[in-house]
Amino acid sequence: MRLVLLVLFAAACGRTGSAERDGDASYAAGRFAAAAAAYEQAAVPGAAGRVLAKLGSAALRAGELDLAVRAWRRLGEEDPSSRLEAVEGLELSLRAAERTGRPEAVREAATALRLLAPERPVAWTEEIGGPGIVGADQLVQQLAAAAEPRAVDSLLLAFGERAETDGDWEAALGAYRGVVRRGEPGLVQLGRVGVATTATRLGSRALGQGNPPEAVRFFREALAADPTAAGDSAMAGLARALAGLQDTTTAPQDSAGTGTTEITQ
Fold first, then answer.
1. Which CATH class is domain 134-248?
2. Is 57 helix (H, G, I), strand (E, B) or coil?
3. pLDDT tens-digit readout, 188-210
4. What is the pTM of this model?
5. What is the gyration radius of the CA atoms in the chain, in angstroms?
6. Residue 22 class from Cβ within 10 Å (0-12 exposed, 13-18 middle, 19+ buried)?
7. How far is the first Cα of the chain from the last one, in angstroms, to the nearest whole number?
8. What are the extents of the domains in the chain?
């Protein structure tokens, strides 16, 4: 009987390892939904923390936010040494759920964050049936009183989110830059994602306003912070901005340097 159990255990381990390898191959190829399915098969009870982290990351990229939240929460609960990584994944999942209008995923992510990171400034708003970021004035007051580095960075992230919601992208970018500069483990990547998304928006705005030099600066900052979060829009925006910059530097100049061609009779 013991031999049979050992054989069954070995077979199960082999299937789990194979599923993880399949997930790795799919993830590397950008097939995130397939990767998530493979990692979910590998995430048996007692699975290594790396499998749960891979599952959370693949599910998040595939837009399967409920699955991502469950994976990150399980990682934080089952592997205390990976708590910061789990909190970071939940933060990313929460933001993705808020952006895409997924209230159930928002609630689940907020609940998990309260469990794993009660210091995160998320307020429950019964009127809207879900969590919401506290007001900017409250966040400023909390920042002034905060002493622990992680609490400060959590508040800076929350302030950036609040500013994004209010359309104040400059303020949001400043907050996210602060998180990146401070380099708090587990939160710095969230700061990079925030820099990438807000700088991309500011670059697009500058491009629309006919300011290629400023657009180039913002797009480059976005891509340097996190190329994946900045995405194709930042790459395309940078190409347009550089083309516009070249046009302005090669435009015919008159003798007064006004940028208009001199007309001779």
1. mainly alpha
2. helix
3. 877 888 898 899 999 999 999 99
4. 0.54
5. 23
6. middle
7. 105
8. 13-133, 134-248
